[in-house]
Specification:
96 residues; alpha+beta; Muramoyl-pentapeptide Carboxypeptidase, domain 2; four-stranded mixed sheet; globular
């Protein structure tokens, strides 16, 4: 989905936070049920943070995220969290 997001927005998107083990999640004060937590033996997780501090880029990322099916979005002043966990509430957005 991140490759599709990059194609849709037309610029590179970095990942400032991806999969985390429980110890790292705790050290960065992540939520105990964070989408960043590794979910299976393959190292998959359901959420990433993308650095973004431009309002124009933020708008384009959010527009593309909706279109591509990201169902959980958090917006911070310097990043956007994109998630797809089906175990968490769906079609939600929050601010940090």
């Amino acid at each position: 989905m991140l490759d599709e997001l990059r194609e849709e927005v037309g610029f590179g998107v970095g990942v400032s936070s991806g999969p985390r083990c429980e110890a790292h999640n705790a050290s960065v004060l992540g939520h105990r049920e964070s989408e960043h937590l590794v979910g299976d033996e393959h190292g998959d997780c359901d959420g990433v943070d993308i650095p973004c501090d431009s309002s124009a880029r933020r708008f384009r990322i959010l527009e593309a995220a909706y279109k591509l099916g990201f169902t959980r979005i958090g917006v911070g002043s310097s990043f956007i969290h994109l998630g797809v966990s089906e175990e968490h509430p769906q079609h939600v957005m929050w601010v940090y």
